[in-house]
Write a structure and sequence with these properties.
Blueprint (H helix, E strand, L loop, with lengths): L8 H7 L2 H9 L17 E5 L5 E4 L3 E2 L7 E2 L8 E6 L6 E6 L5 E6 L9 E4 L4 E5 L2
Antiparallel strand pairs: 1-2, 1-9, 3-4, 4-8, 5-6, 6-7, 7-8
Bound molecules: zinc ion.
The site of zinc ion (ZN) has 8 residues, from loops.
Length: 132
């Protein structure tokens, strides 16, 4: 469905800030409560900081208290990919951008209605644009 964006490591390093590179390309995690979008309540769309694909709408954002931006659902089917992640001695579901395979965060089954899901996403992976 989506055309993949494939860049070399060097191209990613040029395109992204060191923090964005660490999260998106090395599956890093920003420290809790430090991300720029954790407390953002404005209406608009969150795009992938790597490739600009729309990922999450402010409509599905909620305050989980976890310290990271949290969403109950991605903006559409196929916007993100989900993979089993067994790193750090835990079994988690990793969430990546479907277009550029950039690491976004993790998915947990403890979110509120209607989905019961919590997409726990790094601010560094996102680029917010307010609604006009
Ligand atoms: Zn992307």
């Amino acid at each position: 469905m989506t055309d993949k964006l494939n860049l070399t490591d060097e191209q990613w390093r040029e395109k992204l800030s060191p923090e964005q590179y660490h999260v998106l390309r090395e599956a890093g995690t920003e420290r809790a409560f430090t991300g720029k979008y954790e407390k953002n309540k404005a209406e608009g769309m969150y795009y992938c900081a790597g490739c600009g694909a729309p990922l999450f709408s402010s409509e599905s954002k909620y305050n989980s208290g976890s310290g990271w931006p949290s969403y109950t659902a991605p903006v559409g089917e196929g916007a993100v990919d989900e993979h089993c992640d067994v790193s750090h001695g835990m079994i988690r579901t990793e969430v990546t951008c479907a277009k550029c395979d950039g690491h976004l965060g993790h998915l947990f089954p403890d979110g509120p209605a209607p989905t019961g899901l919590r997409y726990c996403i790094n601010s560094a992976s996102l680029d917010f644009k307010p609604e006009e």
